[in-house]
Every structure is written in C-alpha cells, then in structure tokens.
Amino acid sequence: MTAATARLVRAAAGRGVVTAPARVPVELARLRAKVDVGTLTARGWDQVTRVFAPPADDPLFGYHPCEREGCTRAGAYDRALALGLCDQCACGTISGAFGASSRVG
Asked: What is the span of the domain harbouring residue 85?
C-alpha cells in the first residue's frame, strides 16, 4: 500500500467510511474478464453463499475422500490414494504396520 493510499484509508476510516483506491475497480474488472463464472458455477461455485465446493470426481478440482469411517479429510499422495485413505490416516496405517519411520509420499 502506498503512502497516499494509506492516508486515504485512514481519513476515510476516521469518517466511518472506507473507500478503495482508484485502481481497484480496474483490477477487479481485469479479474472479472478472466473468470468464467458459468464454468465456475458448474464446477461447484455458489454465488449466494460464496462457497466453492467442487464434487470429488471433478477432473480439475476433485479430490479423493478418505474411506475410513468418520474421517472427513481427503488424500493427495499416491500411496494414500492407493489405500483409499487420506494422508493422515494412511500415515497412521503405514506407521502401525511397518514402523514409525515409514512416511507417505
């Protein structure tokens, strides 16, 4: 943040109103031009709640949910995926079976 922007924000905050610097609308417009909201919505973006929750089988944003009962995490490492577990559960399973020195990854 530049000194001029900081002064602007402090002055506006003193009045109870915070305004953005003049360049923010330009940057926001550039971002909006690059984001395809229709595709993002189809992949799990909810414009009302402003939450992005893609399905597990999405080819780009998908994940592998842990198959252990009660676990809500997802796995990323190949060994964890092969076991059908999240990284933490796989690490615990591997450590228990082969000793504490084994690591997932």
From this structure: 66-98
